[in-house]
Specification:
Layout: H1 2-19, H2 29-41, H3 54-73, E1 76-78, E2 84-86, H4 89-92, H5 95-101, H6 107-139
Antiparallel strand pairs: 1-2
């Protein structure tokens, strides 16, 4: 029964298509389309800005160069080998370092905590990578 209905609809569709005249575009069809395209292209396009501007790169470069000059030429002290080094006693003599050095924990318990944390971190990374890969593949799929 269904085959009979399909054949009837197929024949009806062929008759309708044969009786429909071919449509031809108007004389100025291309001109009309191109005017619409140019109207669309006059809209404000997306302006891409760099993540770090030229000013930002300049500040980063000046900071890096000042750090290099400080390491090479800043506050030298003589050591027994005769090499110039930087005086970092300011970093070791502060309240934060002294407070953290007084913090006592059991070595075995701390080792277990750190090892559990590293194992959990590895497992979570192994789980997240396939999910993120699938997400980005679906995002860019056409």
């Amino acid at each position: 029964m269904k085959e009979h209905t399909d054949k009837y609809l197929d024949g009806l569709a062929k008759k309708v298509i044969e009786n429909v005249p071919l449509e031809t575009p108007s004389f100025d069809f291309t001109k009309a389309i191109m005017s619409q395209v140019t109207a669309l292209s006059t809209h404000k396009a997306t302006v891409y800005k760099p993540l770090i501007s030229k000013t930002g790169w300049g500040i980063i470069g000046i900071g890096f160069l000042s750090l290099v000059f400080f390491v090479l030429f800043g506050t030298p002290t003589e050591t027994s080998a005769g090499l110039k080094t930087i005086n970092i006693s300011v970093l070791s003599n502060n309240k934060i370092i002294n407070t953290l050095s007084n913090f006592k924990t059991s070595g075995f318990a701390m080792t277990k905590i750190v090892s559990y944390a590293l194992i959990l971190l590895g497992v979570m990374i192994c789980i997240q990578i396939p999910f993120l890969k699938h997400h980005f593949n679906q995002r860019y799929k056409i």
